[in-house]
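Hi team,

As requested, here is the filled-out complex form for the guanosine-5'-diphosphate run. I kept the field names the same as last time so the parser does not choke. Let me know if anything looks off before we queue the next batch.

— J.
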Amino acid sequence: MSDSGDTTAQQRVLPVPAMGLVVLVGVSGSGKSTFAARHFLPTQVVSSDAYRGVVSDDENDQSATGDAFDLVHRIVGKRLRRGLLTVVDATNVQREDRGQLVRLAKEHDVPASAIVLDASDGLVRERTRLRTDRDIEPDALARQQHDLSRGRAQLDKEGFRRVHVLDADEAGTAVVELEPSPHDRRELSGPFDIIGDVHGCRAELEDLLTDLGYRIERDDAGEPTGARHPDGRTALFVGDVVDRGPDSPGAARLVMNMVDSGDAMCVLGNHEHKLLRALNGRNVRLQRGVEQTLQQLESRTAEFRERLREFCDGLVDHYVLDGGDLVVAHAGLKEAYHGRSSGRVRSFALFGDTTGETDEQGLPVRLPWAREYQGKAMVVYGHVPTPRPEWVNNTICLDTGCVFGGELTALRYPERELRRVPAHRTWYEPTRPLHEESTGT
Ligand code: GDP
Ligand code: MG
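And here is what came back:
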């Protein structure tokens, strides 16, 4: 764009999720269709006016509104199921209308953003007067303006990830910036060494990395500060690096340094999730290993604790890798959730497919999603310790209970080769034997 200097200065940049729903909001004549045509592909824009025309031969026929929105919602649903960016061009001045669209986005586990075109009433009236394609009653326009102003203040509490409000000048110059999903790392093809739940077993992690061919760097005290594979392989941690074991800070330091130097990636585990809450000063139950970590952290600096807090805060709940052929999530992930972002996707990735109920020992009841898995991607995860990793429909759990005296396991990808090292000892007594599914918490 060849904007003059002062235009550039006020040019708004609007981040919009590349996989998500964009809800345009504005009265007739506020410039929604113009904005949509300028920033999005025609196939990405679903317009209520266009479907009013499709079902009635007249885009102005208000009696066709119900049928038109049936189609709008169906098409939006079909596109979101396919993970396609979709823009709804309709006034959306009523809270209930926006609510239906937010629910559609949630149903498909994608974020929704709102872009409010907030042209002044005078400008809208003037444009409406000049328009030849629409016949808008002044009363109808006033009603829309009233509806919109009523909901404006609460718009950011309706479930949108972001709400952008643009005045007429900003609407003319703004640029839309598509934000790739943080889960989408399809461009990375490894090779990876995917490593199961470490749980503070720093020494066993060093053993495993060494066995895999990584060269470990150390500080003067001998503590590992980094590890690099001579062939450029990437270590990929399934989460639960911390808690329960003898040296969670040391294990976390090694993993954080490896991530910083590009030698590793790591997804969020439920233990990092809980530790983050504790480090944020939230009230967490001091059980299941977080109490050890917090105690071990007392001998570390405040800077280290803050770095660990930021690290946990920045972890993504799953990655889609290698052109979509590999998915890594702490507790696994069913195919419909691959690459998606929502509360229930996060909860599945962290805790597995739980029913929300607990058994007689207070442990979560799990559903066997892997046994029904038919997806194309290999899904690699941890979370529930088992004595031996086992392939179930192109999925594999790498948690072999190192902290409970089992082994620490890695899967080489794409080779599909398993490597494991034994625990130096039992660091934490399991609540039940490892072969009984559902010890993982
Ligand atoms: P919608 O009803 O919200 O979809 O509004 P439209 O995009 O159809 O715009 C309504 C009228 O305003 C049309 O005649 C557009 O040409 C005009 N319009 C929209 N945006 C702008 C703008 O940024 N500048 C000017 N000058 N006219 C605009
Ligand atoms: Mg329009």
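Two things worth flagging: Residues 1-7, 437-441 have pLDDT under 50 and may be disordered. The chain has 15 helices and 22 strands.

Thanks,
J.
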